[in-house]
Predict the structure.
Amino acid sequence: MRVDAAVGYAAAQSGHGIAYARLSSLGNEHLLRVPFRLNRTFAPRQVGFAALTAVAVTLRKRGIHNVGFALEDQQLLDDLATHRDLDESLVLPYVRLRCALNALDEVAMRHAPEAVDLTARASAEAAFSPAA
């Protein structure tokens, strides 16, 4: 069974992050909240890698192995699609994400501007709580 997961995320400067995934399958919808952690000296682009890794790992632990991810972060989607050279600070987060995605049976990625509400929710929570 395929699950569609619209994902939005954000992190506070402390490195505490939060990802929200709106899971849809067979007409049912569920909102999943997944905390994640970054090094205090993280680069802004590392947030997406860490958030999507956390969501993929959580879904796999819940027995979900066929996922269609929908993200508003086009740059992250481009990084995954084109296998382009990354800054040194992004290599390990990229590898972790690839490993998490490879642990799933089937993965599809698409751009989803409608995930902006999840990003806004995550941003508000990350800004409000130092331990998102």
Observations:
- The radius of gyration is 14 Å.
- The helical segments are 46-61, 74-82, 88-102, 116-128.
- DSSP finds four helices and five strands in the chain.
- The chain has one domain: 3-128.
